[in-house]
Design a protein that fits this description.
5 helices, mainly alpha
Length: 99
C-alpha cells in the first residue's frame, strides 16, 4: 500500500458523508467509487496512447496493476463499511435496539 490508497479512501469517505443527506449512504458511496474507477480507466487509456488511439474498452482491460486495483478497491471497501455502520443501517438498528 502507498499513500495514494489512503488519500483516495479519505476523499471517498468525506464525499460519501457530504452526499449522504442528499442521495443516501449507498448511492453516495457508489458515486465516489465510480469517479475513482473512471479515473483509473482514463489513466490506462492514456497509457495506451490516448483515447483516440485505443479501442473503446482498452482502459478497462489493460495496464491494471495491484496499485491500480487498490486505488479503487480501498475506497470501495471503506465506503461499504461506512454505509453499513451509518445510522439507519441494518447493523446500526441491530446494535442500538433495546434489549
Amino acid at each position: 500500500m502507498n499513500i495514494t490508497h489512503l488519500e483516495h479512501t479519505i476523499i471517498a469517505l468525506l464525499f460519501q458523508a457530504l452526499l449522504w443527506p442528499f442521495v443516501g449512504r449507498w448511492v453516495a458511496g457508489s458515486l465516489i467509487v465510480a469517479v475513482f474507477l473512471g479515473r483509473e480507466i482514463a489513466q490506462h487509456e492514456y497509457a495506451g496512447g490516448g483515447p483516440n488511439e485505443v479501442w473503446y474498452l482498452y482502459g478497462l482491460f489493460n495496464h491494471w496493476s495491484l496499485d491500480s486495483v487498490l486505488d479503487v478497491l480501498t475506497p470501495a471497501v471503506a465506503c461499504t463499511v461506512l454505509a453499513l455502520l451509518m445510522p439507519g443501517s441494518t447493523l446500526w438498528k441491530r446494535f442500538k435496539a433495546p434489549r
